[in-house]
Design goal:
The complex is a heterodimer of chains A (about 350) and B (about 130).
Chain A lengths: L6 H23 L3 H21 L3 H23 L16 H18 L11 H4 L1 H12 L5 H9 L1 H22 L3 H4 L1 H4 L8 H4 L4 H23 L8 H19 L1 H7 L2 H24 L25 H30 L11
Helix pairs in contact in A: 1-2, 2-3, 3-13, 3-16, 6-7, 7-8, 7-16, 8-15, 8-16, 12-13, 13-14, 13-16, 15-16
Chain B lengths: L8 H32 L3 H27 L3 H30 L12 H17 L1
Classes of the chains: A mainly alpha (about 350), B mainly alpha (about 130).
């Protein structure tokens, strides 16, 4: 059981974990919601750096895009609905029973972690059985350089379908709880009308911010598509790409106003896209069934596989299937996130300048 | 005949990593100075200044140092992209934050640093700021 752990990686891990601990304590002690949201983003970025140090690049990318990117933005949108600071409803008393429960749980977890395999150990179940099989089989079965994508979209395509449905269901739950947002419902009336001058735009106090973001937001959207279509070669894939695209729309809404964002990306599109994305994923699987294979068996996506026609580097049926389901994921995730954002932001009567 | 001048390819190759490391270390020093400034400076605007120095100068030096170490490769190109992104976002973010603070009525401290006194003033200004909200 030899784990090759270089001292620099060890030091980086210890420093990053210590930073996570410090940020957690800061979040518990702070009362300003704005600072807490920002620290939450910082927490996610530090975790992303830590995952990177542990060589889990895909997880790190997801943490950076979801934790630091979209959660922070969604929290900011939600914060507009409430006050800026949380006040403890009653003076904090010392409660011993919860403390005892927390300490006991923590001790149990530490006790259990002793039995975990050493990080990077070749005998660890994750490395010895199914993980090893995926690593050995991916080059001939799927032929994508990024094995994580192969596992996620092909070997475990059914699980990922479930995850996409869960994202969709979560979006539906948000809508059921808080509605589409008052202004979102009226948004269809705004389209095509002459825009009366918003007071946000009358004085150009945020001119620099507007100019720079006008340049950067399209690049962010393009980067989302790069992350998506390059997912088989590099870290990233549908989930991250969808989140990044949603962040581009949200940034546009935060800087240029909800009205402009809803004109650029109508809420109806977002609502329809959420369902269409899940449908694209499911249809990719059904096409395979029509051609005689199993659900999501991409070898059948162009018809029954031809013996001996096999692929030097690329297994095109597999890659087509992976890109197909990833398109579904990207559309579903982006649209669910944008719908949720519209739902939060649409409940605010007016996003005033001093709210930012 | 071998090139024996100071700028021979071998010398440049040897200097590349050395200069790159030196640049990255200098950038780290600037970042550390910026962090200390955020903790020690008396008011919002001076801290802002300190933080943006970290973002621009520190990051520039570190990224260019890493580019030198990386040589002509895809990694260096990506680092260049990151640098360009930084040059757009970081000054914009600093400007937006300072602009927002100014619009919200937070007055910068002007005059001579007198230690304790200016600190108390700062807290009063912050409290007034919170009351206004």
């Amino acid at each position: 059981m030899e784990a090759h752990f270089s001292p620099s990686v060890l030091i980086a891990n210890i420093v990053l974990m210590a930073m996570l601990g410090v940020i957690t304590i800061a979040i518990i002690r702070l009362r300003s919601l704005f600072a807490i949201v920002m620290l939450g983003g910082v927490y996610s970025l530090v975790s992303a750096a830590w995952f990177q140090a542990m060589d889990a690049v895909d997880v790190s990318f997801t943490e950076a895009a979801v934790g630091a990117g979209i959660s922070t933005t969604l929290f900011l949108a939600a914060m507009l609905l409430t006050v800026r600071t949380a006040k403890p409803s009653k003076p904090i008393k010392k409660r011993w029973a919860p403390l005892a429960v927390v300490l006991a749980t923590g001790a149990a977890l530490v006790y259990a972690s002793v039995d975990l395999p050493v990080f990077g150990s070749a005998e660890a179940p994750a490395n010895a059985h199914v993980g090893k099989a995926y690593i050995e089989a991916t080059p001939s079965d799927v032929g994508t350089p990024n094995i994580v994508t192969a596992v996620l979209a092909s070997y475990r395509g059914f699980d990922t379908f479930g995850e996409t449905v869960v994202v969709f269901a979560a979006g539906v739950a948000v809508i059921l709880l808080i509605g589409f947002g008052e202004r979102a419902r009226a948004a269809s009336d705004w389209r095509g009308k002459d825009e009366e001058q918003d007071e946000n735009f009358s004085d150009d106090s945020h001119l620099i911010l507007r100019v720079v973001s006008k340049f950067l937001i399209p690049l962010i959207a393009i980067f989302a598509f790069y992350v998506h279509f390059h997912g088989e070669y590099s870290p990233g894939g549908g989930f991250q790409a969808g989140v990044i695209f949603a962040v581009a729309v949200m940034l546009y809404a935060l800087i240029f106003g909800l009205k402009a964002a809803m004109t650029a990306f109508p809420p109806v599109w977002a609502r329809a896209g959420a369902a269409i994305g899940v449908a694209i994923y499911g249809m990719t699987g059904i096409i395979c069934m029509i051609n005689g294979g199993d659900f999501l068996d991409y070898d059948y996506i162009f018809g029954p596989p031809v013996e001996g026609a096999h692929h030097g580097h690329h297994n095109w049926p597999q890659i087509t299937g992976i890109i197909g389901v990833e398109v579904g994921v990207v559309v579903a995730v982006a649209c669910v996130m944008i719908t949720a954002f519209y739902a939060f932001a649409g409940r605010v009567p007016e996003i005033r300048d001093e709210d930012w | 005949m071998a090139d024996t001048s100071l700028f021979s390819p071998e010398n440049l190759e040897a200097a590349r990593v050395f200069v790159g490391s030196a640049l990255a270390l200098t950038g780290a020093v600037f970042s550390a100075a910026g962090s200390i400034g955020v903790l020690r400076f008396p008011d919002f605007y001076t801290r802002m200044h300190s933080a943006s120095v970290t973002d621009t100068l520190g990051a520039t030096l570190v990224l260019f140092g890493l580019m030198l170490i990386g040589g002509w490769s895809l990694v260096s190109f990506k680092l260049l992209c990151i640098w360009i992104f930084f040059m757009f976002t970081s000054p914009t973010a600093s400007n937006a934050a300072a602009n927002g603070a100014m619009k919200a009525g937070l007055e910068p401290f002007l005059g001579k640093w007198t230690g304790q006194k200016i600190k108390i003033e700062g807290q009063e200004a912050l409290r007034a700021q919170e009351d206004r909200e």
